[in-house]
Amino acid sequence: MSVQDETRGIFVRLPSSPESAADVGQFCEVIGYTDAGDFAPIVVAKEVIASGKGQMPSPAHPTWKELINGSMDVQWVELQGLVTAVRSNHLSLLLPEGEIQIEAEFYSEAQLKAFEKAVVRVRGVLFAVWNTNRAVQVGHLLLRNLVVDVDVVAPRDPFDVALKSWSELYQFDPRASPFQRVKIRGTVIYADSKHIFVMDEMRGIQVSTVEPVDVKFGEEIEVIGYPDISGPAPLLREAMLRPTGRTNDPAPLILDGSKLTQDKVDSMLVRISATLMGIHSEPDSRVLEMNADGHLFLARMPETAEPVSLRTGSRLALTGVYVGKTMTWSEGGKPGGFELLLSSPSQLTVLSRPSWWTPRRLLIMVGLLFVILVLAAVWISQLHRLVEQRTQLLQKETREREVAERERTLETERSRIARDLHDDLGSSLTEISVLAVKGQRLRTLDEFTTLFRAIAAKARGLVTALDIIVWAVDPKDNSLESVADYLSDFASEYLSHSGVACRFDIPVELPSVVLDGRLRHGLLLAVKETLNNVERHAQATEMEFRMAVAEDQLEIVISDNGKGFDTKTKHRGNGLKNLPLRLAKLGGRYHIKSSEGNGTMVTIGLRLSPQTETMPASDHA
Question: Please, are residues 321 and 190 in contact by the beta-carbon 8 Å criterion?
Answer without folding.
Answer: yes
